Amino acid sequence: MTTTEDRNELPVHPISGPALSPWRQRALVPVLVSLGMLVAIISSLGAPLIPTIAAVDHVPVSDAQWSLTVTMLVGAVATPAMGRLGDGPHRRTVILTGLATVLVGSLLAALPLGFACLITGRALQGVGLGLVPLAIATARDSLPPDRARSALATLSLTTAAGVGIGYPVTGLLAESLGMYAGFWFAVIATTLAFIAAAVVVPTAPRRPARPMDVTGALLLTLGMSGLLFALTQAEHWGWGSPRLLVLGAASVLLLAGWVTHQLRVTHPLVDLRLVRDRTVFAAHLTTMMGGIGMYLLISLVTRYVQTPSSLGYGFGASVVVTGLILVPFSAGSLVAGRVVRLLIRTQPPVRLLPVSCLLSLAALLVFVFAHGALWEVFVTMAVAGLGVGVNFAVTPGLVVASVPAHETGSAMSFNQVVKYIGYSAGSALSAVILQAATAPGHDLPPENGYRTAGLVGCAVWAATAVVAYALVRSGTRGPSARVRIGRPARAADGVPESDGTGRVAGTGTGR
Q1: Ramachandran region, residue 3 (left: φ > 0; alpha: ψ -120 to 50; beta: rest)
Q2: How many CA atoms lie within 13 A of 146 on its CB side?
Q3: Among 115, 114, 129, which residue's Cα sits nearest to residue 73?
Q4: Domain carrying residue 258
Q5: pLDDT tens-place string over residues 417-473
Q6: How would you class 264 by CB atoms within 10 Å of its CB: exposed for 0-12, middle for 13-18, buried for 19 or more?
Q7: Residue 14: pLDDT above 60?
Q8: Would residue 8 count as lying in a domain?
């Protein structure tokens, strides 16, 4: 007869690293969570400051938007490379190097040397976005099963919860001490995180080092950069401009070449074969769309509330108030994490993916049709936090439990890549739509520009919900959908095999 403990057993760690002392094991989770929070804060530094950056550096708001977009773009490119390096024996070195790069970028952004220096610093800060999957892989390898389960759930929500800390802190510092104060705060926070990681983070288990896929990294970098640059320049060049069409086509070909290369090379940057499972594909799809919806809405809201009310809309809010508007988003994401833990006791976690899409759709609908009062914007962000929180709480477990332990860093890196691609696309898309709605000779768009951008987001979420439901339904039918009774079967590397429902024994998350 099987017991509850048998059914709730976590994956074993087939290759163990050096044992941690009791105090380092207690300190590890707080340090890893602090890395995730640091990443979230750094990624959010650009959004509430966009109008201020445009004014201080005398650049159009659409150009100032790159202070947010470039961080996400670099993160999308750096994350898979860091994940692949982190799956070998050098994970601790990769983490410390990433933090050092973030520190240099924060210093550059904090110095009043002009817009180009700010963008360069923000780009270097984007390297830090690759730290989250490495933190997840470290928790899986270094902690006992019970603590690992809790740590994975907590780490999965840090990127959303940290936004509610980063925006108010940025706003308060900018209001009190000037635009660059928020970046000096990043310098201090990164320095402390570097010291804590150097003391606490253990070396990785002994695994063979794999060669870096330099060709794959270059293809991804060029393809992503070209596509996002084409998107942001479309309004200036014209949607039918030959150079826009050539750049867009070349970028798509480069990304197609990257996919082909990843499927053929022996040691790919990201093993795309792991994405073929319907449940994993649904997780990645909703993660990417979650990123688009999250930063589309955040970019719209932060610009909308700072718009002077003399234009007939907006609230003329200060940077501090703009930051506080993101607090309900973080609160909603944390509540979602707790709700998910309750729901997965009776429901396969994979079924929550369409639910997350519908919640995010509801948030955009609230923004489109009810934004005449500040409290309505707060409600919008709370609902958005619930939607994003459900998705981010479920997807890491679905991915981690589907892959061999030695592929955890790379697999989670791909999940982060699609998330950051979504962040970049959402940020750039909001700028493109608002710029298109802005009349020649004017600095700010009319109110219907925000409504148009919100409706575009609604259409995207509706389509994603339909696709996610179809994938989840087809993936949980048939003989493979039956839950195995007893101890979960294990693959050769010690990771439990799927039961077809998206639930993996012991993770409390999913397949």
Answers
A1: beta
A2: 1
A3: 129
A4: 214-266
A5: 787 778 778 877 888 888 888 888 777 888 899 999 999 889 888 888 888 888 777
A6: exposed
A7: no
A8: no
Here the CATH number for the domain that contains residue 76 is: 1.20.1250.20
Please indicate, yes or no, if residue 12 is contained in any of the structural domains.
Answer: no
Q: What are the start-end ranges of the E strands in 130-276?
A: none
Distance from CA of residue 494 to its chain's centroid?
Answer: 28
Distance, CA of 118 to CA of 234 (rounded, Å)? 23
Domain match, 376 and 436 both: yes
Nearest to 334 by CA among 375, 392, 289: 392
Q: Please state the domain count of the chain.
A: 2
> What are the angstrom distances between the C-alpha of 45 and each of 50, 53, 391, 445?
9, 11, 23, 23
pLDDT band at residue 5 using 50, 70 and 90 as cut-offs: very low
127-153 pLDDT, tens digit each: 888 888 788 778 877 777 767 767 776
The identity of residue 123, as a single letter, is A
Q: What is the DSSP letter of 498?
A: P
Residue 511: per-residue pLDDT: 33
pLDDT at 192: 92
Please check whether residue 291 lies inside any domain of the structure. yes
DSSP letters along 22-85, please? HHHHHHHHHHHHHHHHHHHHHHHSSGGGHHHHHHHHT--HHHHTHHHHHHHHHHHHHHHHHHHH
For helices 242-264 and 214-237, the axis angle rounded to 10 degrees is 160
pLDDT of 362 higher than 90: yes
Does 163 have pLDDT greater than 60? yes
Closest residue by Cα to residue 127 from 197, 75, 69:
75
- State both tokens at 332: 């909603």
When pLDDT is averaged across residues 290-299 and rounded to a whole number, the result is 82
- CA dihedral sign, ordered 258, 260, 266, 269: positive
Give a yes or no: residue 494 inside a domain: no
